[in-house]
Amino acid sequence: MNLDLLAIAAHPDDVELTCGGTLLKMAQFGYKTGILDLTAGEMGTRGTPKLRAEEAAKAAKLLRVSWRDTLGVPDSDVQPARQHKLHLAAIIRQLRPKTVILPYWEARHPDHYHASELGYEGCFLAGLKQLPITGEPYRPFKILYSVSYANIRPTFVVDISGQYEQRHKAILAFASQFQPPKGEKASKVHLAIDRLEDEMNQLARHYGQMIGVRYGEPFFQRELMKVEDVVKMEVRSI
Ligand SMILES: [Zn+2]
User: Fold this and answer.
1) Can you give the pTM of this predicted structure?
2) Is 88 in contact with 129 (CB distance < 8 Å)?
3) Which end of the chain has fewer CB atoms < 10 Å from its terminal CB, N or C?
4) What's the CA-to-centroid distance between 18 and ligand 1, angstroms?
5) What is the Å distance from ligand 1's center to 1 Cα?
6) From CA 29, how far away is CA 119, in angstroms rounded?
7) Across the strands, what pairs with 158?
8) Burial of 180 from C-beta contacts in 10 A (0-12 / 13-18 / 19+)
9) Cβ-based neighbours of 90, under 8 Å, separated by 6 or more
10) Cα(14) to centroid of ligand 1, in Å?
11) DSSP 3-state percent helix, strand, coil across the chain (nearest 5)
């Protein structure tokens, strides 16, 4: 399957939380989108890997994602190791995404910054002819970094006001992490989901406000943005 857009992240739900609205918006534009979770999120304190996989499939459906899979890297031990890079490169060759979204390379959780490095190197290696893997050499055209949690100024923000509600549902699809098993006291986890929801809401509002819309998702790219027509540029200055 050839994808237009592939989002790669460490844990199931990372993509939903950081760029789910953008994935949905691109699917609504008619692009083929995909999510590659590097781990199955098996270190999550709640739920089982099987349940997590069901939740990930449900969230993917809500975001109209055409393809979702797990690379099989151990949770809490994401490393840019040779075997993971080759495995990822083989998937990139198979999916041939035009654009790839990665986590930003600075983060609190080691899995997140390692996911960034592993993702970038997998995309790069996929273009090397002599690599000991099958498939036609291929490199994505564009790499974007999702910077919702990063303390940097984004290069651009995607307006997700129209996708916000659906993104919210996709995040809540990962219910097992936030809801207590039957019989267990709810106080602690309720706080967790409340806090997370609130945080995501605030971040999306904050970045939306920066471009004059209700909700937005921020991205960074290493390259400069090319502009053709300065008269048609969006986002009001004064
Ligand atoms: Zn994560």
Assistant:
1) 0.94
2) no
3) C
4) 10
5) 26
6) 25
7) 217
8) middle
9) 126, 133, 134, 135
10) 5
11) 40, 15, 45
